[in-house]
């Protein structure tokens, strides 16, 4: 389109009188050579020399091409002059003519060099955009791979912890153990099928939490006070799956004692397009000899939050007066 506009300038500004062919050809000669220089660099020289770090050879070849274009332009112009004069010679004011001709050649050479630079800029910009698109595509694939790996880590971790809880009920309360197995099957169905997507409905995640809390209550004694306050009718929004379960699971793992009164409080609320989850539990830290947990759940959660909600979340943990508190805030709007 740009070349078409440039080639059409003489016709557009001729005010209805098309210029003679010889005049038009002489006027457009630098543009013809500019087109040749542009596409010779665009399709061949830039890719084969400049992008392969052969800078010196690229510069030398273009200097030779510019000189060749200047010679070719002068040769064609001389032919056109001879044709227009009918073979007659010229005379007078040779010094002024040479000065004017030298200035015209310098200006033409400069325009040819600018054409080469323009070709480099256009080709370089296209290459940069292509590389940037490929880089973003690779980053997206790497991000998906990392998130999938982190999400799959949750499932065996969650499954083994739940099996440990059921194992403790087999001898003391076989009926509760059967009920726990049934509850675990529903949770695993959600993990294996419903939570394999990038986002799930918030209501599904809340239902999953409620089922998990109900499963955990089966193995607890009357000394453990479990309170949960989860939205009954959450807004119709989507969220990354399995973000809340590590905090709730951690509360049941570290907040229950076999001999002392224990408390677990789980609250969730949605305010101003922000989801707030608060989990509190009596703090009974595991000893070095306790192999019940490796801490993979919380580390996994922090990594997923960084990848999924950069600059859109707040996550804090603290121990105050023997109470361990976890607070998670996520922007969901």
Model description:
With 333 residues, the chain is α+β, with helices and mostly antiparallel strands. The chain folds into two domains: 2-134, no CATH class; 148-331, Histidine kinase-like ATPase, C-terminal domain (Heat Shock Protein 90, 2-Layer Sandwich), CATH 3.30.565. 62% of the residues lie in helices and 14% in strands. It is built from eight helices and seven strands, in the order αααααβαββαββαββ. The protein has helices spanning 2-12, 21-48, 55-85, 94-172, 174-192, 202-217, 245-254, 296-308, and strands at residues 200-201, 224-229, 238-239, 262-271, 274-282, 313-320, 323-331. It has a five-stranded mixed beta sheet with strand order 2-4-5-7-6, covered by helices on one side. Strands 1-3 form a two-stranded antiparallel ribbon. α5 packs antiparallel against α6 (202-217). The longest helix is centred in the middle third of the chain and has 79 residues, at 94-172. The protein is rod-shaped and about 115 Å long. The two termini are 45 Å apart.
Summarize this entry quickly.
With 333 residues, the protein is of the alpha+beta class. 62% of the residues lie in helices and 14% in strands. The chain has 2 domains: 2-134, no CATH class; 148-331, Histidine kinase-like ATPase, C-terminal domain (Heat Shock Protein 90).
Query: Helicity range of the residues?
Result: 55-70%
- How would a textbook summarize the main sheet? 5 strands, mixed
What is the string of SSEs from the N terminus onward? HHHHHEHEEHEEHEE
Mean pLDDT across residues: 82
Distance between the termini: 45 Å
**CATH class annotation of the largest domain:** Alpha Beta
Beta-strand residue fraction: 5-15%
> Which architecture of the largest domain would the CATH scheme give at its second level?
2-Layer Sandwich
Number of strands: 7
CATH topology of the largest domain: Heat Shock Protein 90
Please state the structural category. alpha+beta
Low-confidence runs of at least 5 consecutive residues = 88-97
At the fourth level of CATH, the homologous superfamily of the largest domain is Histidine kinase-like ATPase, C-terminal domain
Number of domains: 2
Evaluate the radius of gyration: 38 Å
């Amino acid at each position: 389109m740009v070349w078409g506009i440039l080639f059409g300038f003489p016709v557009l500004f001729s005010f209805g009188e098309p210029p003679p062919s010889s005049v038009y050809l002489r006027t457009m000669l630098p543009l013809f050579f500019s087109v040749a220089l542009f596409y010779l660099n665009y399709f061949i020289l830039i890719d084969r020399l400049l992008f392969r770090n052969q800078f010196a050879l690229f510069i030398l070849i273009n200097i030779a091409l510019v000189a060749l274009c200047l010679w070719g332009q002068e040769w064609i112009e001389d032919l056109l002059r001879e044709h227009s004069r009918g073979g007659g010679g010229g005379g007078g004011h040779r010094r002024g003519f040479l000065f004017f001709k030298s200035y015209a050649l310098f200006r033409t050479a400069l325009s040819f060099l600018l054409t080469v630079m323009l070709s480099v800029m256009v080709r370089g910009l296209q290459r940069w955009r292509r590389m940037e698109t490929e880089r973003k595509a690779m980053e997206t694939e790497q991000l998906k791979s990392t998130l999938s790996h982190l999400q799959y880590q949750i499932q065996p971790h969650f499954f083994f912890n739940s099996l440990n809880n059921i194992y403790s009920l087999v001898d003391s309360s076989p009926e509760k153990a059967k009920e726990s197995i049934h509850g675990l099957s529903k949770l695993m169905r959600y993990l294996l099928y419903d939570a394999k997507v990038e986002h799930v409905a918030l209501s599904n995640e809340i239902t999953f939490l409620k089922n998990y809390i109900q499963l955990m209550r089966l193995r607890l004694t009357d000394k453990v006070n479990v309170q949960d306050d989860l939205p009954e009718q959450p807004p119709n929004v989507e969220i990354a799956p399995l973000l809340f379960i590590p905090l709730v699971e951690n509360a049941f793992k570290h907040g229950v004692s076999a001999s002392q009164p224990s408390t677990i409080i789980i609250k969730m609320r949605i305010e101003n397009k922000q989801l707030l989850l608060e989990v509190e539990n009596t703090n009974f830290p595991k000893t070095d000899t306790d192999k019940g947990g490796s801490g993979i759940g919380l580390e996994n959660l922090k990594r997923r939050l960084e990848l999924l909600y950069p600059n859109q979340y707040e996550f804090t943990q603290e121990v105050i007066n023997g109470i361990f508190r976890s607070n998670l805030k996520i922007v969901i709007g």
